[in-house]
Prior knowledge:
Layout: E1 16-18, E2 24-26, E3 37-44, E4 50-55, E5 60-65, E6 73-80, E7 93-100, H1 107-112, E8 130-135
Antiparallel strand pairs: 1-2, 3-6, 4-5, 5-8, 6-7
Amino acid sequence: MNTSALEFPSEFDWPHAPLANGGTTDLSIVPGPDEGRLEWACLREFREGWYGITSGSRRVGFGMRWDVEVFPFVWYWQCWGGEPDYPWWGRHYNCALEPWTSRPDGLDNAMANGTSRVLDGNATVETRLIAVAYDGRERIDGIDADGEVY
């Protein structure tokens, strides 16, 4: 059963993602577990590579910073009580934001759409991911290259 309400794939200006049946939804707002949705969105065209997920009421959060030259895409999947079948049976409530080197819809599609990364034999790629936990804030405006939250 598909519990996603989003039109996928689609392009949109953050945070207003198009719904399959018309209209939009604000992906920056975390709904309650009774939503019963499982969503996937591909985010791209970042000015800077960072995100923060903050509980405004608890004033705590988690954030990450990355190099957008290495990871120009972010796979944003959310399960708000969705996925009614095995193995979760509608009991999990979480989201993930995963930096990716290509559009996260399979290697064959990434090769076809020109977003797959190709490395020569014995080549390496070095990068840095910075993960931070923070408190005392209702929202953040960024994470710098040293991991400082502002």
